[in-house]
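comment on this one:
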Amino acid sequence: MVFKLGYSTYALKMVDPFEALRLIKDVGYEALEVCAADAWPTAPTVFSTSQQDDLGKLAQDLGFNSPILFALLDVCAPESGRAAMLESAKLKFEMVQRMHFDDSPILITTTPGHSAPEWESGKEEIRDAFMRLADVADENNIIVSIEAHAGTDFETPEKAVWMMDQTKHPNLKLDLDISHFVVEGSELKHSVNLTAAHSSMVHIKDGIKNADGSIEFCLPGAGGIDCTEFLTSLRENGLEYLPVFAEVSVQQSREANYSPRGTAEFCYNALNQARVTLG
């Protein structure tokens, strides 16, 4: 089996959503992620149900499998905001179902959100918030893939696996975004080995953590992560069936000289060279 490479409209906020899919296909990617974050043109509050239907149809016509949804929910919203968060989740669940057209798992991915408490004092609260969301996901036949995130208190493979061991919910899995683990100092192979059994999707970007604790992300292939080593570790853990999605941080996409197509091509070339090297 050969790895498929994927790309997200998260990197293409400034591009018409339908043209974004054509761009992703034209560059050479074989898998698709649609960003439904609130400020994006495909947020379900502004992207109508008929547009969602049309986008799903275009994805199918272009030869993609059903898209994954980059949901970015504030899962740990306090009780005063919980109803609004669950309503947002419902809209995004309906959107990913509307764009789904094959027998692949219906996937969304999210971090715990900006309301997440500190880990040591609040990890059970984070766990309970994900359990509530997973119960709703179960009712809608959706898998929630949890993404750990550098620069937050939920940033290591050990914490991600703790969450899986504590929840043991069939509708909760991990988004294995290797960049967040490596940026925070976890070794690549160790991170993959630890989280692979719990993972339902894969992301990669790159970056560094500065002495002051700030995070600077960069594109896959532009930093210290060995993309071939990453694919090798995925293969050794039986994850070659999962597409590897290049992710572009808003630290890059908000720059004045940002090139949507040039960035997509750079990421594709870096990952494609890695899979050619791997064979």
Notes: Residues 194 and 245 are 20 Å apart (CA to CA). The mean pLDDT is 96. The first helix runs from residue 17 to 27.
